[in-house]
């Protein structure tokens, strides 16, 4: 099992960052290689990914969810993975989003990619795209995240 830990600071309140992260259907808008995420019910999602030509479909379960603080999950089918995202209030308009991902690479290509740091770079890029996505949303641009509207 390999562990990746990355974080990003976003210029939105913790509530906005948490609320956006729980909109799983939006993940393809900022997560490279995620084609679709369907929320089945309050604790179950179904993912379709295509990363470097390797297509995967899997079910995941939210194992812990504390509003404005953390979301933990574990795959229930497909690749063995799990993780936690935590949200840390820096001030009224800034949040640190931390992601810890545990995954078990499958096959030679994924193991080589893992050794070369592919997953770490992918997670870092996804978090940067999340920052860009949430900071440029219409609500943020008009000041709604800061309660100015």
Automatic annotation (TrEMBL):
It comes from the Bacteria. Residues 10-128 form the Coenzyme Q-binding protein COQ10 START domain. This is SRPBCC family protein. InterPro entries: COQ10_START (IPR005031), ORF3 (IPR047137), START-like_dom_sf (IPR023393). PANTHER family: POLYKETIDE CYCLASE/DEHYDRASE AND LIPID TRANSPORT SUPERFAMILY PROTEIN, POLYKETIDE CYCLASE_DEHYDRASE AND LIPID TRANSPORT SUPERFAMILY PROTEIN.
């Amino acid at each position: 099992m390999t562990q990746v830990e990355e974080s990003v600071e976003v210029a939105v309140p913790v509530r906005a960052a948490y609320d956006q992260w729980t909109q799983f259907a939006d993940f393809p808008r900022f997560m490279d290689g995620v084609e679709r995420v369907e929320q089945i019910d309050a604790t179950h999602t179904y993912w379709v990914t295509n990363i470097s030509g390797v297509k995967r479909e899997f079910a995941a379960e939210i194992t812990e969810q504390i509003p404005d603080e953390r979301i933990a999950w574990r795959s229930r089918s497909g690749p063995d993975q799990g993780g936690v995202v935590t949200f840390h209030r820096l001030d009224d308009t800034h949040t640190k989003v931390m992601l810890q991902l545990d995954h078990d690479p499958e096959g030679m290509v994924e193991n080589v990619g893992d050794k070369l740091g592919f997953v770490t770079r992918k997670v870092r890029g996804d978090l940067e795209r999340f920052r860009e996505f949430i900071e440029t949303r219409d609500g943020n641009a008009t000041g709604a995240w800061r309660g100015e509207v």
